[in-house]
Amino acid sequence: MALRADWLPALTAFESAARHQNFAHAAEELHLTASAVSHHVRKLEARLGVALFQRHARGVALTAEGRQLADAAGIALADVEGVLRHLRSARDGQRVRITTLHSLTYTWLMPRLPQFAAAHPDIALSVDTEIALTRFDDGGPDLGIRHGPGHWPGLSAHYLMDDSLFPVASPRYPDLARIAGARDIAAQTLIADHSHQGWHDWFRAAGVHGAKLEERYVFRDSTDALNAAAHGLGIALARARIATPYLADGRLRRLPGPALPARWHYYIVHPAHRRLRPAARVFVDWLLALPKD
């Protein structure tokens, strides 16, 4: 007798019922009703022409024929599950899980990812842009890109690139024509974010002292601050890596004043206690080889 595809639901229901010796428990495992499991089993018994279970008031028990089929079905389904698990593992082995900053992903990483996709079409990426520092537990991300001092407990860190800060505003900003130098910026509407360096650091570097600064608008994320500036809300202190696409397409214009070297840099990080998987290693090498101009 040939095994047809429409036998598989009945065999699956039977195998679960035989393993649990209980239709209700099988139904819970398979997300079915107990009557649906019973129907599948009776359909299988009718096709085979044998009783697979003895039914009694306290429940069910396998017949000799039922035990024979249960053993074979259990082995077969376990073999299939093993192959499926192997295939999923092989697929996941080609997926790199990355945690990074939303601002850097949106403005620097995303425009470059098509290059990686073209060079490595077999590697899939999962990108998490949570602001909070992600834990690199087992089952967590393979690697991350962080902005910081370059040393974190339990992580290996590889220098990726530096950064600098300078003021930017929309070409439509109302007082743009009046800004000739850094001191003129101090009298304008200032936009800030939660970066570790801010307007006070920049004005100090620009030689502006004693000015009363008012950060009218403060955003948690750097891209939100740049978007606010692009809409003419005020003047933002931009990180060069993040501001590049805004400057390139004309949404923002760099204002007079120095570029303040960032105190912190960008690093690729991954757990020090485990070796990077091959696909993750490929992605790290690709990042490190990117032009940083």
Describe this structure in words.
By secondary structure, the protein is α/β, with parallel strands linked by helices. It folds into three domains: 5-92, Winged helix-like DNA-binding domain superfamily/Winged helix DNA-binding domain (Arc Repressor Mutant, subunit A, Orthogonal Bundle), CATH 1.10.10.10; 95-162 and 265-289, Periplasmic binding protein-like II (D-Maltodextrin-Binding Protein, domain 2); 164-261, 3-Layer(aba) Sandwich (D-Maltodextrin-Binding Protein, domain 2). The chain is built from eleven helices and 13 strands. It has helices spanning 8-20, 23-30, 34-48, 64-92, 102-109, 113-119, 182-186, 199-205, 222-230, 240-248, 278-289; strands at residues 53-56, 59-62, 95-99, 124-128, 143-148, 155-161, 164-169, 190-193, 215-219, 235-239, 253-254, 260-261, 265-271. The strands form three sheets. Strands 7, 8, 9, 10, 11 and 12 form a six-stranded mixed sheet that branches. It has a five-stranded mixed sheet with strand order 4-3-5-13-6, covered by helices on one side. A two-stranded antiparallel ribbon has the order 1-2. Helix 8 (199-205) links the parallel strand 8 and strand 9 (215-219). The mean pLDDT is 88.
Could you name the key traits of this structure?
D-Maltodextrin-Binding Protein, domain 2, single chain, alpha/beta, elongated, Arc Repressor Mutant, subunit A, six-stranded mixed beta sheet, 3 domains, 11 helices, five-stranded mixed beta sheet, 293 residues
Overall average residue pLDDT: 88
Q: Globular, elongated, flat, extended or rod-shaped: what is the shape?
A: elongated
What percent of the residues sit in helical stretches (DSSP H or I)? 40-55%
Q: How large is the count of helical segments?
A: 11
Largest sheet: 6 strands, mixed
Structural class determined from secondary elements:
alpha/beta
The poorly predicted ranges are none
Domain count, please report it.
3
Distance between the termini: 69 Å
Total beta strands? 13
Q: Which CATH class of the largest domain?
A: Alpha Beta
Which superfamily, in CATH terms, is the homologous superfamily of the largest domain? Answer: Periplasmic binding protein-like II
How large is the share of residues in beta strands? Answer: 15-25%
Write the CATH fold name of the largest domain.
D-Maltodextrin-Binding Protein, domain 2
H/E element sequence: HHHEEHEHHEEEEHEHEHEHEEEH
- Can you tell me the CATH architecture of the largest domain? 3-Layer(aba) Sandwich
- Give me the Rg, rounded: 31 Å
